[in-house]
Design brief:
about 325 residues; mainly beta; 15-stranded antiparallel sheet; nine-stranded antiparallel sheet; globular; DUF2804 domain-containing protein
């Protein structure tokens, strides 16, 4: 029987049980080891699993006046990174870069939630460094420079989800609102991260060549959510409310693909989330290689609407909650 909404079980120590079976489920906490090595799989999938191993580490800093995001990605046969700064007053990206390179040489990601990750290409570097109870994030590039740390000393409930996904299995860890400090330099301006709220995404799985998802994430102290429709189904849909973590049902994303900066409607089938997302701008990227293709759109904006406490039934009104949505399709 599934646990009640307010009693997610603690995260297991490993992704895979001793019998070689994945520890599928939604948990609270951090999985100790993110190794898929013991996973049993058909022989032909064992031969190609290295190419299907996808990992990424992502951080977002939501501020009253700007939004900053950075990521390091390893998709098995190539690595990548991106970073951008979105000015919420001017409603535009004021600095960004993205780059690709060979995994192992340019891109390295530790098999640990919120651990070390690095991408280097020429003068551009994105790095995550775990130092005890803080995660240090740096971006050094001609376009922008970021020096920040995220406080993990009292992270509140961490979401850990392990699911079949669309090939063999996938695991993700998501944080709620985390304290952050630091700065970002862009276009001659020095922006302090004081007052910003950080959120983290550490994902690690064995995914199909054709993988698609839609995603929504927003957090502030005492309230936040993570919603996805696509390769993970509802396995990572969760609500943070007053220091507790709750499971959510399937999510629907209604928006005009021809006009993605028009309002989005995002709801869950259990009726606990009913939101309108109002984009202020977006980052997009389209890449087509000989054997791969990626289409990425991440609008930045605010959420408005209601969330309902799964136990008490209390309806909470949400206004101007800063966050992102995403429409992503990859052949990788």
């Amino acid at each position: 029987m599934d646990p009640s909404p307010s009693s997610l079980p603690p995260a297991p120590a490993f992704l895979v049980h001793e019998r070689g079976v994945p520890a599928f489920g939604m948990y609270q906490g951090v999985v100790g080891s993110l190794s898929w090595a013991p996973l049993k799989a058909p022989p032909f999938k064992h031969l190609t699993r290295r190419l299907h191993h996808k990992r990424w580490q992502y951080v977002a800093f939501a501020h009253e006046h700007f939004f900053v995001a950075a990521a390091v990605v390893d998709v098995g046969w190539t690595g990548a990174a991106f970073a951008y700064v979105f000015d919420r007053t001017e409603r535009r990206i004021v600095a960004e870069f993205s780059a690709t390179g060979l995994p192992g040489r340019r891109s390295r990601i530790e098999d640990r939630a919120f651990g070390d990750a690095t991408f280097r290409a020429g003068k551009r570097c994105v790095a995550f460094r775990r130092a005890d109870s803080r995660l240090e994030v740096t971006v050094n590039a001609p376009e922008l420079k970021l020096a920040a740390h995220v406080d993990l000393s009292e992270p509140g409930p961490i979401l850990a989800a392990i699911a079949p996904a669309n090939w063999l299995a996938h695991a993700t860890h998501k944080s709620g609102a985390l304290p952050a400090a630091g700065f970002v330099d862009v276009a001659g301006a020095h922006l302090s991260l004081d007052g910003a709220v950080a959120s983290l995404d550490a994902s690690n799985g064995l995914l199909a060549r054709d993988t698609r998802w839609r995603w929504a994430s927003a957090h502030r102290p005492g309230l936040g959510f993570n919603l996805q429709a696509g390769f993970m189904g509802s396995a990572e849909n969760a609500l943070w409310l007053d220091g507790e973590l709750f499971r959510l049902a399937e999510a629907s994303f209604d928006f005009d693909e021809a006009a993605p900066l028009a309002p989005w409607r995002i709801r869950t089938s259990d009726g606990l989330v009913d939101l309108e997302f109002r984009p202020e701008g977006a980052r997009s990227d389209y890449r087509r290689h000989v054997i791969a293709e990626s289409r990425y759109l991440q609008p930045i904006g605010t959420f408005h609407g209601t969330v309902t406490h799964p136990v008490s039934g209390e309806v909470r009104r949400i206004e101007n909650l800063v966050g992102v949505t995403e429409d992503h399709a990859s052949k990788w």
